[in-house]
Amino acid sequence: MNLDFVQKLKWYRSVLVSNKQIDSYQEHGAILLKGVFINWIKTLEVGIQKLMSNPSPRERSYFPEDGSAQFFQDLCNWDRIDEFRDFIFNSNISEISCNLMNSKIARFFHDHILVKEPGSSIATPWHQDLPYYSVDGKQNVSFWIPLDPIKKKICLKCISKSHLTGKIHRPKRFNGNDLYKNDNTDELPDIEKNINTYNILSWDMEPGDAIAFDFRVIHGAAANSNKSLRRRVFSARWVGEKTRFVNRNGKGSPPFDHLNLKTGDELNVDDFPIVYKNY
Ligand SMILES: O=C(O)CCC(=O)C(=O)O
Fold this sequence. Notes:
Jelly Rolls; alpha+beta; single chain; seven-stranded antiparallel beta sheet
């Protein structure tokens, strides 16, 4: 193959994520991307180590009542953890986001770290992310990036096509408490009771792989039943040019309550930088 520089660049870009993968993302709301972040695992490991030894005021960890290990969570740390910022600005993640969202831009929304220590008995309940977020719009994507090998039984589980129902279900904290007061949205149906009626997407994963999923997709994850392996996950959330700020009349998660934005506004504030432009 004898390609000039521009052709090479186009070829390189087109293999980051194929049209088939983009179609599958739009259709199912979740896809597996193999090996896309393999060169960034060490960087993210260092970042997570730094974060856990100095968490932010937004840390929200859960300690199981049975005395098993913690489920550590923290959010929005890219501006103080160099390794996170490096990954967000210098890896291919912004370009992949842009392509998956069919957007002209990839705007970073936030990072979220989710570490289930070995044997932690805390399962992540079924939920959608959109009702927790101060944004609305179909152009969005989250990446679930494990830093440890993951067996399918403890992998993120996404319900295929659940982003297309048009329904937004009542958000709850992972301990079952309602997130917003006087929330009259519908409760999520009992997924476990009818589990065989859903097409559940989940995979065996290696460090470097990622699941890209839509903010509207119903998803959850089992406890970390593995007694010797940690389940460290770096999650990065992105929005496109048509996604807008929304005031959900309550403290969402993450709580962006310092922002002076109104429903319908573009997210033109430093918290949400545009990292990639496709024009
Ligand atoms: O990692 C988990 O246990 C859950 C992840 C999740 O709910 C999310 O990334 O939105």
